[in-house]
Amino acid sequence: MEKPIFKNVEVEPRKKRLNRKKIFESAPFIGLIGLFIAYFSVTGGNISFYNLEILINQSVILTVVAIGAVFIFSLGSFDISLGASMAVSGMLGVMVFNETESFGLMFLSCIFAGGVVGMVNSLLSAIFNLPAFVSTIAMLSILTSLVDIILDGNTNISLAGSTMAIDNLVVKLVILIGFFAIAFYLFNKTAVGRKNKFLGSNPVAGSQTGISIVKQTIYSFCFSGVGVGLAAFLTILRAPTLSKSTGGSIGMDVLIAIVFGGMSVSGGARSKIGASIVGGLSITVLNQVLLVLGASFGMTQLIKGVMFLAVVFVASLNYRTKLLPR
């Protein structure tokens, strides 16, 4: 008597699942390639070194913030005060340089300011048990008011010196690569990243295993603050005059970039540090494509918002049945 063959019945669904997983994992890279093709098309193929330099300058700032923000998002949390924090950090750096004429002290003051804001956010969120959107909205209001105080009725604050000595691609790429290397090691090779993913997937189960939500929240927000400080320093190098609009769209751009990079908005096990690089480049290229096409700022934000919702919806089709209860 022949035995029933169940091989095809079992293997075929598994193959389909693997193929679908590969498609979802490769989608961010396919999207990035598609955006580069679109950029090449709208510019008529005339991509000069100057154009590439603009792309790098813009993507470095966004990507550095996104790298740090991945730690927050992996917890299933978020921070909408990133842009205001970057503005305050940059203005503090400008003030320090104008008093000391030291790029080193300006660099350290930017990182210090970003780290302090991240620390305060984490304490409000973790110790006082406030939802992230509540604490970061409060911090956004505080930082916006602080920007007004620093400007003291002026429209902007300018660096009393030239950044030409250090304003080059080598410095910017060294900062980006160095920060990404540290983040990659912490997120993928240490317990910090593993605990973040666990808590993001199921905070109740994570806390019951002995993982401290308070500690992980503080680590994540502080590391994100360092990224904000680095981005503030890079912003000063790129544009030594800062105003109220500095960093205005960075919060939304980081959120969209991380999702475009293939990371779930709910964090958890599917979080990956590489999403910041792919997403940061994608948003930068998208901005340039829309700029060449003559889209206004409002239209650009509208298009990015619609694309964000579309990506989240499509991604949820793959995540929805696989998320652990939160």
State the share of residues found in helices, binned by percent: over 70%
Instruction: State which percent range the strand residues make up.
Output: under 5%
How many individual helices? 12
CATH topology: ABC transporter involved in vitamin B12 uptake, BtuC
Second CATH tier, the architecture: Orthogonal Bundle
Strand adjacency order, main sheet: 1-2
**What is the alpha-carbon Rg in Å?**
21 Å
Order of helices and strands: HHHHHEHHHHEHHH
- What composes the largest sheet? 2 strands, antiparallel
Write down how many β-strands occur, each being a DSSP E stretch of 2 or more residues: 2
Mean pLDDT: 83
- Taking pLDDT < 50 over at least 5 consecutive residues as the criterion, the unreliable ranges are 5-12, 320-326
First and last CA, distance? 50 Å
Strand pairing plus helix content: what structural class?
mainly alpha
- Shape call: globular
Q: Total domains, how many?
A: 1
The level-1 CATH class: Mainly Alpha
Short characterization:
This protein is 74% helix and 2% strand. The chain has one domain: Orthogonal Bundle (ABC transporter involved in vitamin B12 uptake, BtuC).
Descriptive report:
Helix content is 74%, strand content 2%. The protein is globular. The chain is built from twelve helices and two strands, in the order αααααβααααβααα. It has helices spanning 7-42, 49-74, 82-100, 103-126, 132-151, 169-189, 191-201, 203-208, 213-238, 250-260, 274-292, 297-319; strands spanning 156-158, 241-243. With 326 residues, it is mainly α. Strands 1-2 form a two-stranded antiparallel sheet. The chain has one domain (55-313): ABC transporter involved in vitamin B12 uptake, BtuC (Orthogonal Bundle), CATH 1.10.3470.
